[in-house]
Write a structure and sequence with these properties.
With 1011 residues, this protein is α+β, with helices and mostly antiparallel strands. It is built from 37 helices and 32 strands. It is 43% helix and 18% strand.
Length: 1011
């Protein structure tokens, strides 16, 4: 504790702050300081009638604001002076208490009227900083407002018991974390200290004969001693089969100046839990408290736990899968139980959910007994599972086997596995291969959404596809499926059978609450959760709802199509990408249309032509060769040789090199340091290098002017395009952009640095080298119209232009597309992105979310062609009425007997076919570019033309009716299909670079010709 932070100083500062808070608020109050036997206090009175409103007490900065002795001392004075409200404050926290409730020793949540936490103020000296003082005054104003309202007879709502308990536990975690200097690595330890203390005291309250009462010495200020004592209790609990306690003692790396604060926080936590009396909580209150603290703990640990609405939806599907009808659910359960079909369910839950799904399932199956085994997939989740397991113990329908050994031969009816870490995929693989499922057994997975497409999960996807039947895959757009938002999807599978139905991929476009309401006809809030979830299941089972549906997109996918390497094509809304592409192409033009784009200067001998400042000084190189006239002054010939020398959009490049611009006349260089440098280079045979040999003379560079904008070719970690405000030159490590209108350079550079600009560039990429930007990429960069660029308020984005550019993942605050959102993006970048997304392109909120998702995905992987092709298919269907063959051609072929269908497999080298009519028969000639590969005779012209048409639209495995009449019936439709497809492709692909045309054409044809 700081020496200047004694009680007298604390009272002086806080009393003064109270007076200032009254002065700067609109409250009609006065403040007077009184000194009585118990100490000094501030009495807050009504300005009009001098009626006492509150008694204010100041404590030391590190003290517990809920300190019982201090509160009781203040209560005595308040009772004597007939003051209805008590305000106690430290520099850390302020509370408002109901004096009569304190006197009658009511439960703590009934005493508390307000709890306010200031910004973390360590000592009185911190108040010299305006931001700290403003935060203190703001909290005191709120406290005074509540006190005045209470003293005037106004009704103050007390916090609910469960809410109050969780808020105090959360506050303890935050305080301990602050004591470490908010060190990221210490966050988990701070959380686990509070968790282990909470769990131990709950266990001690329930089994006092087994666990010793947790007592901390009140006189010590050593946080390390207190922590050692807590760890000793934890070790004792572990020896008494409280296995969730940490195996190793926990430690905190606390800042020296905050050690007293940490000691006070630990003592305060234990005192609060004793005062609170956990035994008085009802089963419902305990469940509510545990569920909420479980959610908060998950948020701090970044362990996604499915939301209750998601768990309800999945539980409804599972209930139906366990032979219980969705409609009339409750009535049907009794009959099934009497028949002995479903009296008990063996459940295995692994991961941080620890019983959440079973809790929801019990609402659908109230007469069923659940034999639940709760296990942890990772040691760090032990405490989470313990909290969840305490929930289960309060349900009489649950027989809980806590963390028991999972028997491989146990017939499980339901297995639920939740994981948030990639390493857990190995455990998932084990479950899929070793766990024994009962007949009709169901497995539910809550997984990271990148499970659907990332290569690291490819093996597991293949295992699922070959061993199990995929029933449901659920993802969400508007709201996360888990708390916290860690990018999670739900997957429901069952054992593979002889006859199995296709998978149902559900992409939720609205919140689940909105979907519940929509499916229930607007009566969802008045209906039970069981009925609401049942309605949603019926709604989603109705079939494919259409790509433009506003509530949910449901795609019915045959199991055989899941053999693809990635499944995200079934949940990515390509209609959204299609609309975004249309808006972008309509509002932008190519950078090559408004600028000259070429590679930077290739000197062939950078070490000669770009000396460092130190070399210039050492060799005394004349300034006229590395400086140039710029208006009325001179400027250095700064030269950029690597991307790392560019740190900001418009700041001075961090380059130590200067470009030497030497005239071709060697005689003019006599007696100069530059000539000596040239001769030294020639002595080392630099002039004989192939890279400089073609330039005559070799020492004279042809440089016209510096670029308007600089694009580094290497963008390995960050995305940065520099406005060349300082007239730097660039070597071939960068791309030189000379704008036709240099006045718009700042606006163009700001646009190119925005995430939206990067998205448009990645949209049109063709190569596999994700980090390298080519001249072609720069030329094809889409740029908004000059009119829109003039609307960019450069002053508003000044800080963004001058600050150091962070890595792209830091800029958007995520490492994968599932975690990125507007809340994670840096504030200044988001402000810029919002302008372009909303003002220039008119993106909807859904399109804005997917803009970020696609951008970060394409930053890490090369998948844009696949997504773009599917988006083009959407445009072809909506604008050119091109129906995929799978919707009309495939079903008609499948209706025919096998003997009535002829098959033809073409070589992959075939590029096109031609229908010919000879004197005796019809033929199809197959070509590989201009080379004739094969000619096949057909008995009818209709057959031959159908084969040629199908070949020319990209089909390589052709199925056609053997009957000439049936082929003739299909011919007009195939002609229309080909004509519409080719006409649409010509228009749509024209927006893309020429080198992408053939790639996109093949990809689109492949999608549309699948049967």
């Amino acid at each position: 504790m700081h020496a200047a932070d004694g009680i007298a100083r604390a009272r002086e500062v806080l009393f003064s702050a109270v007076a200032d808070a009254i002065k700067h608020s609109s409250l009609p109050l006065n403040c007077e300081i009184i000194s009585v036997l118990e100490g000094s206090f501030a009495v807050i009175r009504s300005e009009s009638d001098a009626r006492p409103v509150a008694l204010f007490d100041a404590l030391l900065p590190h003290q517990d604001v809920f300190d019982e002795f201090a509160i009781d001392r203040t209560r005595k004075v308040a009772t004597r002076l007939n003051i209805p409200t008590i305000i106690t404050s430290t520099l850390q926290q302020s509370i408002v208490l109901h004096a009569q409730a304190v006197a009658s020793k009511q439960c703590e949540e009934q005493q508390v009227l307000f709890v306010g936490r200031q910004i973390n103020i360590e000592c009185v000296a911190n108040l010299e900083m305006p931001s700290y003082k403003v935060a203190l005054l703001r909290t005191l104003k709120e406290a005074l407002l509540v006190a005045n309202q209470h003293a005037s007879g106004g009704k103050i709502d007390h916090p609910a018991t469960a809410q109050f308990l969780v808020s105090r536990l959360t506050s303890a975690v935050q305080y301990l974390h602050w004591c470490t200097g908010a060190d990221r690595t210490q966050k988990a330890n701070a959380l686990q200290i509070v968790q282990q203390t909470f769990v131990y005291m709950m266990r001690q309250e329930r089994a006092p004969e087994k666990y010793s009462p947790l007592v901390l010495p009140t006189t010590t200020t050593s946080f390390q001693l207190l922590l050692d004592i807590l760890n000793a209790y934890s070790a004792d609990g572990s020896r008494n089969q409280l296995w969730c306690m940490p195996v190793k003692p926990l430690s905190l790396k606390v800042l020296a100046t905050r050690a007293p604060h940490c000691a006070s926080a630990l003592q305060s936590l234990v005192r609060f839990l004793y005062r609170f009396d956990l035994g008085r909580l009802s089963a419902d209150e305990m469940n509510s408290s545990l569920a909420e603290f479980l959610s908060v703990s998950a948020s701090w640990s970044q362990l996604g736990i499915p939301k209750s609405s998601v768990a309800s939806l999945v539980a409804a599907v599972v209930a139906k899968g366990l032979s219980v009808g969705v409609d009339g659910l409750i009535e049907s359960v009794g009959g099934l139980t009497r028949n002995g079909n479903l009296s008990e369910v063996n459940v295995l839950e692994i991961g941080p959910t620890g019983g959440t799904l079973t809790q929801e399932l019990s609402k659908f199956l109230p007469d069923v007994t659940f034999n639940v085994t709760v296990a942890s997939s990772r040691p760090t989740q032990n405490m989470m599972v313990e909290l969840s397991e305490l929930l289960l113990r309060n349900n009489s329908n649950f027989h809980v086997d806590y963390n028991a050994h999972v028997k491989r031969d146990e017939p499980w009816q339901l297995v639920c596995f939740t994981f948030n870490h990639g390493a857990d995929r190995h455990l998932m693989q084990f479950i899929l291969s070793k766990i024994h499922f009962a007949e009709n057994g169901i497995c539910v997975f809550f997984l990271p959404s990148n499970f659907l497409y990332h290569n690291s999960f490819k093996t597991i996807r293949n295992s699922l596809r070959t061993q199990y039947e995929i029933q449901w895959v659920v993802t969400s757009d508007l709201e996360p499926l888990a708390t916290p938002d860690v990018g999670m999807c739900a997957l429901i599978v069952k054992k593979k059978s002889d006859s199995y139905s296709p998978a149902r991929f559900v992409y939720l476009r609205s919140s689940l609450d909105r979907l519940f309401e929509f499916a229930s006809g607007g009566n969802a809030p008045d209906a039970s959760i069981q009925k609401r979830a049942s309605n949603v299941i019926s709604y989603l089972e109705a079939g494919e709802l259409g790509k433009m549906n506003t509530e949910a997109v449901v795609k019915i996918v045959p199991q055989q199509l899941l053999a693809n390497s990635a499944w995200d094509e079934f949940v990515v809304p390509h209609d959204v990408l299609a609309t975004m592409m249309s808006k972008i192409f309509a509002a932008t033009t190519r950078l090559a249309d408004i600028a000259t784009v070429h590679s930077g200067l290739r000197t062939g001998a950078t070490e000669v032509f770009a000396p460092t400042i130190r070399e210039i000084d050492t060799e005394k190189i004349e300034s006229e060769y590395w400086q140039r006239a710029l208006g009325n002054s001179h400027a250095d010939n700064i030269v950029i040789t690597t991307s790392t020398e560019l740190e900001t959009i418009s700041g001075v490049p961090a380059s130590e090199r200067r470009l030497l611009l030497i005239p071709p006349d060697r005689s003019a260089l006599a007696n100069t340091a530059v000539l000596a440098r040239i001769e030294s280079a020639e002595h080392e045979s630099v002039h004989l290098r192939p890279s400089v040999k073609g330039r005559e003379p070799w020492w004279s560079l042809r440089v016209e002017k510096p670029p308007s904008i600089i694009i580094p070719k290497s963008q390995t970690d960050r995305w940065l395009v520099a406005l060349n405000a300082h007239g730097a030159f660039v070597t071939d490590s960068c791309i030189d952009v000379q704008l036709h209108n240099p006045e718009c350079a700042a606006a163009v550079s700001v646009w190119m640095n925005s995430t939206v600009g990067l998205f448009t560039m990645k949209l049109l990429r063709s190569d596999e080298f994700l980090a390298d930007v080519t001249v072609r990429d720069a030329e094809e960069f889409r740029v908004p119209s000059a009119e829109k660029l003039r609307e960019v308020d450069l002053k508003l984005h000044k800080d963004f232009m001058h600050r150091h550019m962070m890595s792209f993942e830091d800029e958007v605050g995520a490492t994968n597309r599932e975690m990125v959102s507007s809340t994670t993006v840096s504030t200044d970048r988001l402000r810029l992105d919002k302008f372009f997304m909303e003002t220039v392109f008119g993106f909807t909120p859904e399109e804005q979310r997917w803009m970020y998702r696609f951008t970060i995905e394409w930053w890490n992987t090369h998948t844009n062609i696949r997504h773009v092709a599917k988006a083009l298919c959407v445009l072809l269907q909506t604008e050119y009425k091109v129906r995929p063959l799978s919707q009309w051609y495939g079903p008609r072929i499948e209706q025919l007997p096998r003997s009535a269908v002829q098959h033809l497999t073409l070589n992959s080298t075939i590029t096109h076919a031609e229908h010919r009519v000879s004197m005796f028969t019809s033929q199809v000639a197959f070509y590989s570019h201009d080379k004739l590969e094969n000619v096949i005779d057909y008995s009818s012209a209709a057959e031959a033309e159908c084969i040629a048409l199908l070949c020319n639209v990209g089909m390589r495995h052709i199925a056609l009716p053997s009957d000439a009449l049936l082929a003739a019936e299909l011919l007009p439709e195939l002609r229309t299909f080909q004509e519409s497809l080719q006409r649409g492709l010509v228009v749509l692909i024209a927006h893309f670079p020429a080198d992408l045309h053939s790639v996109l054409r093949r990809a689109v044809q492949e999608q549309l010709t699948k049967t």
